[in-house]
Amino acid sequence: MQYTPDQEKAIKDRPAGNVLVSASAGSGKTRVLVDRIIDMVKNQGINIDQLLVVTFTNAAAKEMRERLRSSLQSEFAKATSADSRKHLLTQIRKVAVADITTMDAYCQKLVARYYYILGIDPNFRVLSDNTEIQLLKEQVWDNVREDLYGEDKDHSFADLTENFSNDRSDDGLTDVVFQMDAFANVNEDPDKWLNDAASFYKIGQEG
Ligand SMILES: Nc1ncnc2c1ncn2[C@@H]1O[C@H](COP(=O)(O)OP(=O)(O)OP(=O)(O)O)[C@@H](O)[C@H]1O
Ligand SMILES: [Mg+2]
């Protein structure tokens, strides 16, 4: 196959930084990424399981793994020296377990391997069902609200609830809390964001 000059550059160049491959649909982006990896494995003695290849979807990861496997197989068929045949055969075996995966799946693998450092139960489970997430959130909020009402000696929590209620419902505060939760969780440090958010409402404490 004859690469275009841009493809050639993206495959063979080894700049110290990053390479951005941007081209229209079906124009050979995945080909470039696959051949870049094959070039590293073939010409630089790198093992395929030393690389982390991240895709957006599971389907793309599967495609990438299959394309790497078939490229490795055709390189193996072309290889003449005993050393490179041995190296390529090892890669063909390793491609099945190489980290060619989505970011989510890779993170899950890391957590499963290092749960003891993170202080997490090894039987952890990923909460991915949106209905379950919502139910759990509501349960937690119900408990928190009950506690806050129980301790509400100065009536401040009742006032807060009242402040966000209207004549039809008193879900106003619930909506605000859930919105704050959503906002906080897209930040790197949600607790810090929540603490800082309160500072906007401190009046007359400048400097
Ligand atoms: N320089 C080239 N000469 C001939 N065929 C090529 C060349 N580059 C890529 N191809 C072939 O074109 C087809 C599409 O390439 P590829 O899947 O890499 O495109 P893509 O940009 O990743 O597409 P998509 O946007 O759908 O992800 C593949 O069969 C690939 O082997
Ligand atoms: Mg592609």
TrEMBL record:
Pfam families: UvrD-helicase (PF00580). Coiled coil: none annotated. GO terms for molecular function: 3'-5' DNA helicase activity; ATP binding; DNA binding; hydrolase activity. GO terms for cellular component: cytosol; DNA helicase complex. Keywords: ATP-binding, Helicase, Hydrolase, Nucleotide-binding. ATP binds at A23, S24, A25, G26, S27, G28, K29, T30. SUPFAM superfamilies: P-loop containing nucleoside triphosphate hydrolases (SSF52540). InterPro entries: DNA_helicase_UvrD/REP, P-loop_NTPase, UvrD-like_ATP-bd. Residues 2-207 form the UvrD-like helicase ATP-binding domain. This is ATP-dependent nuclease, subunit A. GO terms for biological process: recombinational repair.
